[in-house]
Every structure is written in C-alpha cells, then in structure tokens.
Write a structure and sequence with these properties.
single chain, Rossmann fold, 3 strands, SAM-dependent_MTases_sf, protein-glutamine N-methyltransferase activity, N5-glutamine_MTase, Release factor glutamine methyltransferase N-terminal domain-containing protein
Length: 91
C-alpha cells in the first residue's frame, strides 16, 4: 500500500514512530496514488487490475482519477465499514 495520509492528518501524532515518508503523500495524501494511477497503464495489460489501499477520506477522489482509464471500479470496506480499498480494471 502506498503512503496515503495528508501532511496535516490527525492520525500522524499516533504514528510518530513510523517513517514519515512511508505514511505521508503530499498536501492531500494523494500524490503517490496519482502517480500510480498515471503510470499503471505502462505495467498493466488490457483487462488487468489495479488494487489500491487508501484513506477512508479519499474514495471519491480516487474513483474520479480512475474513471479516465479504468472500468469496473469497485470499493471495498474494512471491518469498521469504512471505504479502504479500490479495485479497477484497465481498459
């Protein structure tokens, strides 16, 4: 899973012993996910799948990013019922 927390995310205080670069991905937490989505077509065959773990706050933004090159976009919830992963098929 890529880093997906925003620079000012409230969860960072409880993760102070984790390497910051493993947790934070730019101001909004989506820099690494944007890069993965942008570059995924270089590595996926047509019909291949991309699975992303993400913050429960990012589901809508990630779906919008995926709509340009992916179909069959499915969201999965964690045990608390929060949107935490997305599976999408490359066109």
């Amino acid at each position: 899973n890529p880093p997906y927390l925003a620079e000012n995310d409230s969860h960072l205080e409880s993760l102070k012993y984790e390497p910051i670069e493993a947790m934070v991905s730019g101001k909004d937490g989506l820099d690494d996910i944007r890069e993965i989505i942008q570059n995924a077509p270089k590595y996926l065959n047509q019909g291949g799948y991309l699975l992303l773990e993400h913050s429960d706050r990012h589901q809508k933004e990630i779906v919008e990013l995926l709509k340009h090159s992916f179909v069959n976009i499915l969201t999965y919830q964690d045990l608390n019922g929060l949107d935490r992963a997305i599976l999408a098929q490359y066109l």
